[in-house]
Amino acid sequence: MMMIFGMFVFSIPTATYQSLQRSTSWNHASNNRFGSMPAYQYVGKGEDTITLDGSIVPEFGQQLSITALRVMGDTGKSFPLIAGNGKIYGMWKLDEVKETQTYFYEDGLPKKVEFSLKLTKTQTAGVLVGNVLGNMVGNVL
């Protein structure tokens, strides 16, 4: 398993990604000053996004994997994102799925499907861990 997003597992039988790009921003309010450069004030975290680029080849993965991701996006919900090494990224929503099909068989099925997913963070990992632990303790009691 490379990574799990909600109940979707990125792996050879489903879909593999070849690149993970993460972008994090911070917000600063600008206050113009007469005769000088603007003053800036930190006002909080901005967006945190991850883009996963990968491919599916019919011999290993299934094109149905892209459909499953689209169904997850249709829910509008956030899902936990956890790396195969156990790193918890937090809660993320699926913003965009791009798909490119190339090299077709005679029946029209693609020999290769490339995809790109854009995820945006909605909650910190600490909140996710706290919620999970809180639920576990609550279920035990």
Describe the protein in words.
InterPro entries: Myoviridae_GpU, Phage_P2_GpU. With 141 residues, this protein is an alpha+beta fold. It has a single domain (3-140), classed as Beta Barrel (Elongation Factor Tu (Ef-tu), domain 3), CATH 2.40.30. Helix content is 20%, strand content 55%. Strand 3 and strand 4 form a beta hairpin. The mean pLDDT is 89.
CATH class: Mainly Beta
State the helix count. Answer: 2
**Unreliable sequence segments:** none
Q: What gap, in angstroms, lies between the N and C termini?
A: 32 Å
Using only C-alpha atoms, the radius of gyration works out to: 20 Å
Approximately how much beta-strand content do the residues carry?
over 45%
Total beta-strand segments: 7
- List SSEs in N-to-C order: EEEEHEEEH
Helical residues, percent: 10-25%
Shape: elongated
Sheet having the most strands: 7 strands, antiparallel
Q: Which CATH architecture? A: Beta Barrel
Structural domain tally = 1
- Structure classification: alpha+beta
Average pLDDT level: 89
